[in-house]
Specification:
Strand 5, helix 5 and strand 6 form a beta-alpha-beta unit. By secondary structure, the protein is α+β, with helices and mostly antiparallel strands. The chain folds into two domains: 130 residues, 60s Ribosomal Protein L30, Chain: A; 167 residues, PurM-like C-terminal domain (Phosphoribosyl-aminoimidazole Synthetase, Chain A, domain 2), CATH 3.90.650.10. The mean pLDDT is 95. The two termini are 19 Å apart. The strands form two sheets. Strands 1-2-3-4-7-5-6 form a seven-stranded mixed β-sheet, with helices on one face. A six-stranded mixed β-sheet has the order 9-11-8-12-10-13. The relative contact order is 0.16. This is Phosphoribosylformylglycinamidine cyclo-ligase. One of its GO terms (molecular function) is phosphoribosylamine-glycine ligase activity. It catalyses: 2-formamido-N(1)-(5-O-phospho-beta-D-ribosyl)acetamidine + ATP = 5-amino-1-(5-phospho-beta-D-ribosyl)imidazole + ADP + phosphate + H(+). It is an enzyme of class 6 (ligase). Belongs to the AIR synthase family.
Length: 338
Amino acid sequence: MDYKAAGVDTQYAHKLIHNLKDRISATHKVPNVGEVVGQYGGFAGRFTMPQIPGFDVVATTDGVGTKTQLLRRFDYLDGIGQDLVGMCVNDLYCAGATPAFFLDYIACGKLSESWYDRVLGSITAACAATPMALMGGETAEHPGVMPDDDFDLAGFAVGFIPKDRRLPVPELQREGDMLIGLPSSGLHSNGYSLVRKIFAAMEKQSPAEFQAITANRKELIASWLTPTRIYREIPALLQSATIKGIAHITGGGIHENLPRAIVAGLAAEIHSPEPFRLAAAPVLEKYVEREKLFHTFNMGTGLILIAEENQLPAIKQHYPDAAVMGHLVKGSGVALKL
C-alpha cells in the first residue's frame, strides 16, 4: 500500500505542472504593475512592485485535503481552521515572509449552521493566533455537484518581505551546512488519502484494532487529527539567526520538499530521519513499507532549516526541541538513512 495506490500520484502532478511552466512564466511580468521574482517551484510566490518601496509581496495557497473527510467523520472540526491557515502560512515562512492577511474559500453541497460556524470560527481563531488578518473569503454552495453534507476548504495567505531579504539563499549554502528539524504536531494535513485507505482496510480486516483506535477520542485526535502546527516563531528566528533555507515537509515527505530549498549542486544527507516519532507511526508501519512512509508523510518533522552549526543555539532559543537531522553534501536529491 502506498500514496499512489491510495489515488494520489504526486509525480504525475509535477509532470503536468512542468509541461505548463513556459506558459505560466509568460504571465509573470505585468506591465506597469510589477513582476514575479525568485525561483520557480518554491513554497511561495514573490511579487515585486515599484509602487511598494522597500518591500515585496509574498503569496501562497493550499487546502486541508482529504483530512476533511476524517474530521467530518469523527466530528472534530475545532482545529480544521488551523490546518487550513497552517498549511498556507508555513509556506510563507519558507520564503522568509511575515504573514499579513488571509482569504478562505469554502465549497459545500448545502450550507448548514451545524458545521459552518465551527469551521469559520476555527479559521478566525487560527488567523488571530498567527497573527494575521482574516480579510474575507467566499462560500459557495454546489447543489447537485457535492453531497449536501460535504464541504471542502482552500486558503490564500499573503505576506511581505523586505526587498533585500529572501529565502532560500542559495549563494550562502555550503557543503557541511546542518539540516535542522523542527517537530510537527502530527501528520499535519498531508497523506490522508493513504490514511483513509489504511483505516478502510483496518476496519474490514481488523475491526477490533480499528475499534480500539477510534474508541478513545482523546488518543484518536492526538495521533491522527491534531491540527497542523503553525511555526509562528519563524519571523523572530530570522531576525536572530542566519538561516539559509527552510523546507515545509508536506505531501511527498522529505524527498520531495527538502530539495526545493537547496541550491543546485548540493544534496541532503539525512542520518537521523526520525528525531520526532509520530504517535501514528506504529500503525502506519503495519500497512506501509517504511521507506514509502518517508515519501508520503512528514514522519514527525514539520520544517527543516538549513544553517551553519554555530546557529543551532540561536535556533534553540526559539525552538528548544530542534534536532540536527543531517547536512548538505555535493550532489543532488536526498539520501535518507533508515
